[in-house]
């Protein structure tokens, strides 16, 4: 009964309700002019597919599987990439919080620090006027988790992954680091590794923050529209476009 209710909700609430409305328009147009009805049907099907967990999980998983967590961690600094933050939001010891992906990356870095004792370099600035400065927030939170101040470096100027790589390379050179352990989301790792290589850094990939389960199961709700799936599909397509841009850039 619970799953039936979830199934029904997916077509009553956004974004599923928009698929239903568009299909209603297709039916109405079909009676008057089939050519535009066929075009609208094709667009509706593409939109519907982008909303389903089946498609979103398949796309994001194809990125996440390109790198695996290494059995042995070898390097001289743990480099963590930001992924969004809020400003002015209450926290235990200040204001500002990291977004979900960035928080997962930070948690992985803190656990790696416990295992290795290697310093942490967090890279990420204030991307928008109303977002938080990612590295500054991360530094405060890492210290709040008990990591000594001298073991936390903040690169707080980067606005995208390309700047993460170039600015991190500069800060690492200042502190004499040469072997970064790169921590970021699994879906973000392929593009990050390509950009770090372009910046002259040979990094050890340590992916985290996985979005798709393994193995993926099939059930009715995998085929229903879901707002989270729209976001995941967008993230995956953005990463593929970013990878293409890296390859095409001279």
Walk me through what this model shows:
52% of the residues lie in helices and 14% in strands. The chain is of the alpha/beta class and 250 residues long. The chain folds into 2 domains: 2-64 and 225-248, no CATH class; 77-208, Rossmann fold, CATH 3.40.50.620. It has a 5-stranded parallel β-sheet with strand order 5-4-1-6-7, sandwiched between helices. The protein is elongated. The model has no long low-confidence stretch (mean pLDDT 96).
- Looking at CATH, which topology of the largest domain would you report? Rossmann fold
Count of helical regions: 9
| Share of residues in helices | 40-55%
How would you spell out the order of helices and strands? HHHHEEEHEHEHEHEH
Main sheet: strands, sense, barrel: 5 strands, parallel
Per CATH, the superfamily of the largest domain is HUPs
Number of domains: 2
- Mean pLDDT across the residues is 96
Distance between the termini: 56 Å
**How many distinct beta strands?**
7
Indicate the overall shape: elongated
What spatial order of strands do you see in the largest sheet?
5-4-1-6-7
Percent of residues in beta strands: 5-15%
If you compute it from the alpha carbons, what radius of gyration comes out, rounded to the nearest whole angstrom? Answer: 21 Å
Structural class by sheet pairing and helices: alpha/beta
Write the CATH architecture name of the largest domain: 3-Layer(aba) Sandwich
Low confidence ranges: none
- The top level CATH class name of the largest domain: Alpha Beta
């Amino acid at each position: 009964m619970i799953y039936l209710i979830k199934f029904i909700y997916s077509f009553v609430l956004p974004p599923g309700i928009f698929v239903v409305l568009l299909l209603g328009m297709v039916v109405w147009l079909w009676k008057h002019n089939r050519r535009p009805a066929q075009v609208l049907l094709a667009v509706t099907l593409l939109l519907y597919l982008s909303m389903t967990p089946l498609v979103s999980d398949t796309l994001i998983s194809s990125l996440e599987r390109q790198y695996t967590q290494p059995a042995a961690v070898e390097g001289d600094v743990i480099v963590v990439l930001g992924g969004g933050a809020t400003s002015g939001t209450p926290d235990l010891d200040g204001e500002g919080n990291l977004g979900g992906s960035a928080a997962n990356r930070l948690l992985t870095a803190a656990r790696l620090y416990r295992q290795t004792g290697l310093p942490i370099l967090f890279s990420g600035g204030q991307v928008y006027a109303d977002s938080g400065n990612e590295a500054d927030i991360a530094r405060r939170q890492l210290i709040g988790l008990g990591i000594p101040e001298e073991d936390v470096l903040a690169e707080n100027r980067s606005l995208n992954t390309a700047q993460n790589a170039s600015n991190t390379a500069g800060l690492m050179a200042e502190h004499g680091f040469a072997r970064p352990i790169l921590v970021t989301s699994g879906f973000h790792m392929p593009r990050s590794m390509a950009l770090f290589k372009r910046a002259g850094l040979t990094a050890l990939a340590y992916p985290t923050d996985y979005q798709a389960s393994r193995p993926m199961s099939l059930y009715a709700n995998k085929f229903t529209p879901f707002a989270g799936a729209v976001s995941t599909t967008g993230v995956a397509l953005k990463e593929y476009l970013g990878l293409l841009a890296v390859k095409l850039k001279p």
